[in-house]
Amino acid sequence: MNAVRFFVILTMLALLPATGHAKWWIFGQAENEISTRYLYLNGISYDELGDKVTIYRETLDNGQVVLRGKAATSSSAVGSVQVSTTNRERWEKARKTSDGSFEYAFRPETGASYVLYVKIIDTTGKTNDVDATRKEIVISDRNISALIRQALDELVAAYRAEDPARFMALVSEDFAADPAVLDRAIRRDFTAFDNIDLSYTLNNVTAANGKIYAGFTFSRKLTSTRSGQTLSDKGSSEFIFSLGEKGPLVFSMKNPLIFGLSDASNVATGTVNTGTNEPVIVVTSSGDVITQPFTEAITTIDNGGVVQTTADTVEAGSFTLSNSCPEDSCIQPGFLFSSQEVTNMWTGDINLEINLMFIKSGIGIQNLGAVGINTVTSAPASGYVVSDGTGLTGFIVGDNIGNTFAFQLLNGKYALLEVVSYTDLGAAKTRSTFRYKYQPDGTRNF
After folding, report:
1. Which of 326, 306, 325, 340 is nearest to 440 (CA)?
2. Distance of CA 263 to the CA centre of its chain
3. N or C: which end of the chain has fewer CB within 10 A?
4. Has residue 100 been placed in a domain?
5. What's this model's pTM, rounded to 2 decimal places?
């Protein structure tokens, strides 16, 4: 009976047309949300730039304006990303990778203005809120970067000299995170660090909302006074300057910080996401100076310097799915990893019908083979098959007892699932037991 039903399901899937209304085997497309996980214009956060942006030609790498981001959908896959610089008169495709990352570059003319829009299209034809991406860009030949470079040079020199008064003279009284907080943080830096060696490269300078946005890369080496260990890191970050009678003054800083690491959670206003996971230097709540991969470092900073271990963050347990299919209908249970709850009627990340496990459309799945879930310490970085919501990208539960699967979920998190047992109770009824692990911090560590 079960084998016949499974064959019928696959036969139906093969015969169904590719177009038409959403069907029962495609999950969540009606409520699909399309957005960006991050979006940068020449290294500056797109959302912070306001409606009208001035870009200084001298700061353009190879004379190009570069838009870089990562598209995200709640259920379907990203089909394409298009960009218009002509107020939607013409659209051009951005370069896109399989994980939704994209990049678009164009070479502007000095004095010209461009009206920019970004359109993300999923595989069902749905788009993001295109109107919300509008930006008017003006290209200027004014030499503003020389002022910003001078300000950064003075900040670095004061910091390396461990001179807090000289450093704070270069900070705005309206510093977003409170000047007193930054003053205390750099003084604690000077206690925690020795032999500070810091250099930077100014990559771009942009004006918007009455502020100057400066994106830069940095390289740093220092010695922990507590451990005597020498640590180094490199990365990309951003400062915002206010421009007044005294010249450029620091208005805000983003993670990864180059100053004020000892109280990063209170000093930084935002994070520059580079899309990489290179290690960065972190000062823990106990005063230890360590390096952590970027995503872990940001978690530590957000937790006020408290370092979480895998045991602190991984959520684990087991569950049972009981399935029955009388002649006219089926009870199709599923499971949501993020909330660790059993669901009904195709509302889970995974959903079971008899012996066939369906995976929600857009989720990546990889069979790790006959390994116990507790022996897997890290989910794979690549190699996932993205589900199309049909049984063709699912798996037969009874054939995979003892196997563990890795999942790349729609929320960007990772999960593991081990098939523990499968029992055919007859009369189109089955019972399956699973173990699971869910990592909510966004890393692949288990």
Report:
1. 340
2. 23
3. N
4. yes
5. 0.52
